[in-house]
Design goal:
Blueprint lengths: L1 H34 L21 H9 L2 H31 L6 H9 L10 H10 L6 H24 L4 H9 L4 H12 L1 H16 L3 H6 L10 H4 L9 H36 L1
Helix pairs in contact: 1-12, 2-12, 3-4, 3-6, 3-9, 6-9, 6-12, 7-8, 9-12
Length: 278
């Protein structure tokens, strides 16, 4: 009887998990489904469409007319730079606040972590005012600075949690062997933070990949526009090509989905370990 109850409970748990997975995945299915239909087929009843003919041309048009390669290059460059800077600064900041003994270390750590409570778009207008005065609008720095600044608190939080688990005796032995501070940080401590580095890199990338509001506010020309701008290429004053817009959104979402699927275990493992160690 007990074994039967356990089996029923396990089946119920699996049913709930499958239902939640379908709910989470359905928007992606809906997006791909509509991207393969024609614009005239979209205004029909029902959640999904069965296209009379699969419109692969939507993706060709999105790829060519949506400046996809240019915007993809900009998105990859900006996000890679943001990831590198966040990892580098968060490692140094975590080491300075947790390992080095100075009077204001606790206050500085608290101020940096308080950035987690500030929404990124709350600084939209103040940043625009400053960028305008400094002639930094429509440059890579207009996006790179806020992306790094608002990803840094989370990165530092995870790095600090992992760093607390590293024995201080390792650093003391390195000092006795004549290692300088930079060698200790980058040759001894950094390799031991591999799990947290992967976690911070993935989370920074996913958080900034689809950001549009700041990019729309700060960028005017095509020089540094990112992938979300491809959708606007098919928006007219009186009508829009919705089928191609769905294709653009599917292409834009694909890199982030692939990164998440491939590296999902690292995200879960890193966040869990950071929470336990913190």
């Amino acid at each position: 009887m007990k074994k039967k109850n356990m089996t029923v409970g396990k089946c119920f748990l699996w049913a709930v998990l499958v239902m939640m997975a379908v709910i989470q995945i359905f928007p992606l299915i809906w997006l791909v489904d509509f991207s393969l239909a024609s614009s005239t087929e979209m205004f029909t009843s029902g959640l999904l469409i069965v296209p009379e003919k699969i419109q692969w041309g939507n993706y060709v048009k999105a790829f060519v007319d949506g400046h996809f390669l240019l915007y993809l290059k900009n998105s990859v460059l900006i996000n890679v730079l943001a990831v590198v800077l966040v990892i580098l600064i968060s490692i140094m900041a975590a080491f300075a606040c947790r390992r080095m003994h100075w009077r204001l270390s606790g206050l500085v750590k608290m101020l940096l972590l308080m950035g987690m409570m500030i929404p990124i778009h709350a600084t939209l207008l103040p940043n625009y005012k400053m960028y305008s005065q400094l002639h930094m609008t429509d440059t890579i720095w207009a996006l790179l600075i806020p992306y790094v600044a608002f990803s840094l608190p989370q990165g530092m939080f995870l790095m600090t949690s992992f760093m607390e688990a590293i024995p201080e005796e390792i650093e003391e032995a390195a000092v006795m062997d004549g290692c300088g501070i930079y060698r200790i940080v980058f040759q001894i401590i950094t390799p031991l933070l591999k799990s947290s580095i992967v976690t911070v890199a993935i989370m920074t990338f996913l958080n900034n990949w689809n950001e549009f509001m700041m990019a729309r506010t700060y960028l005017k020309t095509d020089t540094w526009k990112t992938l979300p701008f491809s959708v606007l290429e098919f928006t007219g004053q009186y009508s829009s090509n919705y089928a191609v817009q769905f294709a653009v959104m599917a292409l834009t979402a694909a890199p982030a989905v692939i990164v998440y699927i491939v590296l999902n275990k690292h995200i879960t493992k890193g966040v869990a370990m950071g929470a336990v160690k913190g």
